[in-house]
């Protein structure tokens, strides 16, 4: 069974459940049958259903429906249940834990037949601390966080502090975690004031394990925009001799413009979302006089541009 | 004599004429006396007087004024009138044509004593087609145009078309000229509709010398913003198989956002001005999905980062 849709539009009106049989008896060479344990839901999944996302899934023919349909879901965790007898199966065996390397494969269903090349084997619970739930959300958000922290600026705990907005998002939390725990770099994290919660504060406090030098600080956009809040002075104190050379933006609009003003000369601002539905807005002086570089990031593109080996390496690092 | 100011502020209130004597009899080692023929006025000069520009000139003590003052002007053309007897004079001799390598040297005066290192010798009228007037405006605007066309994307006449706004500015005209005449690359140039004139149209038409493949097209922001004007289709026809990988922006705001939408995937948008006094505004999708890179350019920074040799080379190329 799975969640399918026949045409693009508002997911609330277009998505429907469907039950069908899968014939796992006659797997073709190189094919495997994967039972899906968890499938994640990302904001981009809704954009795909709406038809406004650049990545388009392929329509498929399913038993019990006349027309070809799309199956929702880009990301998920599964277990290999059955393998074809011949063909190159990438060293997979029954019971292996996998996630999907093929984007938009349609993970919102109980199981699927795919090519052995469409999955990436990950360590199972015995081999690592990962859970099926974590595995199902590994590929988009933590991967985005990891790549943005590594591909644009070589971070140095003694010289660098990072800033980001939408810090309560899955990517945002992963960014602050990876920065504090792995890179030992402090982060200044912005959220809407109504997104504040004690749990979020506790989570952010926990990342640095009491080490002030790599603390994940949490502030609100409203606090930053208010000239009398004293936040800019507070941030100067936090920075000390360190500078903000890397900023991560998933919001755009004014909140991003305010954040960008905290950044130093020769910095890089990465935009990977526009949650405010506003265009990217940056004071021109930062770009002209302070040589700020503005770049974009999209995980799907990275996966498309990098081979299976690079992808496996990234996912192993994340696990 | 020259134009001086004692404090920052509105140039109309702060700039004043002053007449003083220069003692050219006792030049120190390495010093030269340059008589200034032409000094140019750039928009940035006013920002310097206002005190809002990053480049700050040094105050000087002048005969006849108690306090130290600034002298206006960044760029100019001069002739070497007198040289100190000893010291390294960079091969300069009396009568040589020079422009100034030291930024904000204060060119709005009839003559000055400076170090031989503060000038760059240029070919004189006998050696090239350059006039004193052209020489006096060489260093900022044509140099900016040249570097922006060369430092970010390798232009290919068969594959590339460039776009720019503020095309009637000195930089804009130089961009269209260098693109058509030297690089043989077509350009799509935007101006305010009230900046349109027949002379400007004739000038832009003349750049390509009748060669359609490297024509400099002239359109208005208003024309581009109007969905029913048919301009987007017109531009598609102009492009054919070519793409816009390089855009030059001196305006920011909405006019720039509209222009950016014409650009292709993996393109670079360079911002070197903000004539609309708006922040840079770019639809986020261009950055995230189309991997547009946004960079800034400032000629002063380039001069500061490059040695005398690179600077001389650039100016010789421009001459």
From TrEMBL, chains A, B:
Pfam families: ADH_N. InterPro entries: ADH-like_N, GroES-like_sf, Mito_Enoyl-ACP_Reductase, NAD(P)-bd_dom_sf. GO terms for biological process: fatty acid metabolic process. CDD domains: ETR. It comes from the Eukaryota. GO terms for molecular function: oxidoreductase activity. GO terms for cellular component: mitochondrion. It is found in: Mitochondrion. Keywords: Mitochondrion, NADP, Oxidoreductase, Transit peptide. Residues 29-101 form the Alcohol dehydrogenase-like N-terminal domain. Belongs to the zinc-containing alcohol dehydrogenase family. Quinone oxidoreductase subfamily. This is GroES-like protein.
């Amino acid at each position: 069974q799975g969640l399918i849709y026949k045409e693009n539009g508002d997911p609330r009106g277009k998505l429907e459940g469907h039950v069908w049989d899968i014939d796992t008896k006659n797997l073709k060479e190189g094919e495997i049958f994967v039972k899906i344990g968890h499938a994640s839901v990302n904001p981009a999944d809704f954009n795909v259903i709406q038809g406004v996302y650049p990545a388009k899934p392929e329509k498929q023919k399913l038993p019990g429906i006349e027309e070809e349909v799309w199956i929702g879901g880009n990301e998920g965790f599964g277990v290999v249940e059955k393998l074809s007898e011949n063909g190159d199966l990438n060293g997979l065996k029954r019971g292996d834990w996998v996630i999907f390397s093929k984007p938009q494969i349609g993970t919102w269903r109980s199981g699927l037949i795919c090519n052995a090349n469409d999955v990436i084997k990950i360590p199972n619970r015995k081999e690592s601390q990962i859970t099926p739930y974590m595995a199902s959300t590994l590929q988009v958000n933590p991967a985005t966080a990891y790549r943005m922290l590594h591909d644009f600026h070589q971070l140095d705990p003694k010289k660098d502090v990072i800033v980001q907005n939408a810090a309560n998002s899955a990517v945002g939390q992963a960014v602050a975690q990876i920065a504090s725990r792995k890179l030992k770099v402090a982060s200044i994290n912005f959220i809407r004031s109504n997104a504040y919660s004690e749990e979020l504060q506790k989570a952010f406090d926990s990342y640095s394990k009491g080490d002030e030098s790599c603390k994940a600080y949490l502030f609100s956009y409203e606090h930053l925009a208010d000239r009398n809040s004293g936040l800019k002075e507070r941030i100067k104190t936090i920075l000390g001799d360190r500078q903000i050379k890397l900023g991560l933006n998933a919001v755009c609009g004014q909140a991003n413009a305010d954040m960008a003003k905290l950044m130093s000369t020769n910095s890089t601002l990465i935009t990977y979302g526009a949650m405010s539905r506003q265009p990217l807005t940056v004071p021109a002086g930062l770009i002209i006089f302070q040589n700020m570089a503005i770049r974009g990031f999209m995980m799907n593109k990275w996966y498309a541009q990098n081979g299976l080996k690079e992808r496996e390496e990234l996912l192993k690092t994340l696990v």
